């Protein structure tokens, strides 16, 4: 057991969160203000947009305008999802300093979600990686369904490790391990992490856990015990779970920060400023605030 | 690290949960049906009522009628809170096989909540304990504010240990450690538990954690690692937090059961039957279901 002294939070609310919000298209200026508020709160890594066809994801159709509108605060990394070469070109044109690609740990999920095998999806990223590297842009890799698949059930830890290793070998600087359906529990999270850590250095592994079954903080605590020091989370728990109607998706940043503060782990982020941001964006969206810490602490400094 | 092989769930929804529900008085038959459904789901320990003045807690005014109405299923312990001798007499008259007394770990909380010092509150329980023992009734001890007090802030683990020891010395067979305001985080929970375990055998310690800050399952995982094998929880997360309006109180039984199943720990309880019970009672009360597992799994067998 060796807790990290410091954890880097990767805030995914503006992309992974808003992308999964139901309802009308969110105005560009609202997205820009959310990102700026989070940066002002001390968040050093924000997934800001997705350069994907607006036919697939209408909510992200203004990616270039978002990247053009945000303040570029020094010390903050603003990243974007780029599922293909066209997306990467858009990200480069919008002066995006970091992009992300993704693959599933489950064959069934890969087929159903992006209509190709895991191997084919990795193959498609080869030119994206090459062009990103040529442009001096860092690439983060996401692995989905690491603790269960809605179609195939349990996923072997070795399979997660193999896909993680493949993404690192292709040139990703970090892999983010996504419990897409939130079905994981702490021992399973630990076992999966141990398998990945045989292939990828621990300081290059991020935990991206969903709270669909309420287990996210327990799972994070378990992998923090193993030394994970990068956590993906979403302010106010923005984003739902496409596989269970009305259920939670991303773990709330506020709740993660509260856990970390209690463990004496530094993040550089002002919790109350994130709480205020979460209350602000949920009012804007007319949505329930999914953070229990936000509900308990209430609002101030508005 | 030594997880227990088996955990006993003490279901507190019918008492600690319903007592803190806002709204009109819940009909006796609804309470009775809730208790019977939980017993049928395999819950072996149910806190069913509180023999307290209805002037203080109107929601519990029908304690005798509840105890008279429920099925007495073999192998199930039905218990009641008895704050004083009059309460104990009511519980004995209602043929209650187990009762519970309570003390705070915080002097400030004791003074504000029951208007006397911790020592005075323990003194008051001496005749209750004597009479319960004479009647062959087991007594459970609750300690509140073990991980923080709404008035005094942090509570020293040694103070929790001293109050726990006092309750055991008076004749309680078990102490339940309550994080009344849900402010605890895993390391603090562990440190508090370690202090108590110096005074009370581990198999006589129960964890009663609230989820107000979303930390309950992480805290439970941390104390399970230390060997705690009794957990208090409330179906559908019944009961709010009197110290933070609109916030969560008791951790949901469904979410605890899901955690335990994932850890391979047996409880003898059918998770889906508890999920169905939680959906039923929340419909009866016109209340949001506070269990994320219940939200994710939905309903069946209704």
Keywords, separated by commas or semicolons:
homodimer, 302 residues, 12 helices, 42% helix, 8 strands, TIM Barrel, lyase (chains A, B), hydroxymethylglutaryl-CoA lyase activity (chains A, B), alpha/beta
Secondary structure: number of strands of chain A: 8
Q: Can you tell me the overall shape of chain A?
A: globular
The CATH class name of the domain at 97-212 in chain A reads Alpha Beta
CATH architectural label of the domain at 97-212 in chain A: Alpha-Beta Barrel
CATH topology of the domain at 97-212 in chain A, which one? TIM Barrel
* Largest beta sheet: strand ordering of chain A: 1-8-7-6-5-4-3-2
CA radius of gyration of chain A: 18 Å
Low-confidence stretches of chain A: none
Main pleated sheet of chain A: 8 strands, parallel
Query: What does the oligomeric state look like here?
Result: homodimer
Q: Look at the structure and give the mean pLDDT of chain A.
A: 95
Major protein interface? A-B, 35 and 35 residues
Percentage beta strand of chain A:
5-15%
Order of helices and strands of chain A: EHHEHEHEHHEHEHEHEHHH
Distance between the termini of chain A: 40 Å
SS content category of chain A:
alpha/beta
Helix content of chain A: 40-55%
CATH superfamily of the domain at 97-212 in chain A: Aldolase class I
| Number of discrete helical segments of chain A | 12
Enzyme class (chains A, B): lyase
GO molecular function (chains A, B): hydroxymethylglutaryl-CoA lyase activity; metal ion binding
Keywords (chains A, B): Lyase, Metal-binding
Pathway (chains A, B): Metabolic intermediate metabolism; (S)-3-hydroxy-3-methylglutaryl-CoA degradation; acetoacetate from (S)-3-hydroxy-3-methylglutaryl-CoA: step 1/1
């Amino acid at each position: 057991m060796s807790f990290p002294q410091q954890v880097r939070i990767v805030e995914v609310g503006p992309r992974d969160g808003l992308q999964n919000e139901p309802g009308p298209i969110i105005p560009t200026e609202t997205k820009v203000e959310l990102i700026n508020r989070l940066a002002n709160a001390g968040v050093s890594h924000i997934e800001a947009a997705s350069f994907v066809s607006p036919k697939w994801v209408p909510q992200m159709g203004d990616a270039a305008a978002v990247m053009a509108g945000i303040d570029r605060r020094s010390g903050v990394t603003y990243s974007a999802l780029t599922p293909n070469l066209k997306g990467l070109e858009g990200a480069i044109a919008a002066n995006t300093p970091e992009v992300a690609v993704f693959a599933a740990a489950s064959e069934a999920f890969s087929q159903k979600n992006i209509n190709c095998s895991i191997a084919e999806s990795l193959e498609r990223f080869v030119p994206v990686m090459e062009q990103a590297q040529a442009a001096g842009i860092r690439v983060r890799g996401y692995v989905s369904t690491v603790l269960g698949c809605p179609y195939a059930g349990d996923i072997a830890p070795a399979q997660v490790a193999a896909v993680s290793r493949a993404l690192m070998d292709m040139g990703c600087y970090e892999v983010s391990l996504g419990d897409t359906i939130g079905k994981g529990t702490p021992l399973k999270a630990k076992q999966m992490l141990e398998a990945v850590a045989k292939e990828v250095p621990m300081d290059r592994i991020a935990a991206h856990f969903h709270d669909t079954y309420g287990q996210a903080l327990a799972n994070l605590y378990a992998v923090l015990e193993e030394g994970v020091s990068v956590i993906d989370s979403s302010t106010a728990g923005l984003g739902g779970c496409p596989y269970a109607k009305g259920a939670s998706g991303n773990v709330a940043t506020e709740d993660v920060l509260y856990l970390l503060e209690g463990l004496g782990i530094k993040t550089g982020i002002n919790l109350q400023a994130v709480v205020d941001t979460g209350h602000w964006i949920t009012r804007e969206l007319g949505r329930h605030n999914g953070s229990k810490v936000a509900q308990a602490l209430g609002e101030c400094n508005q």
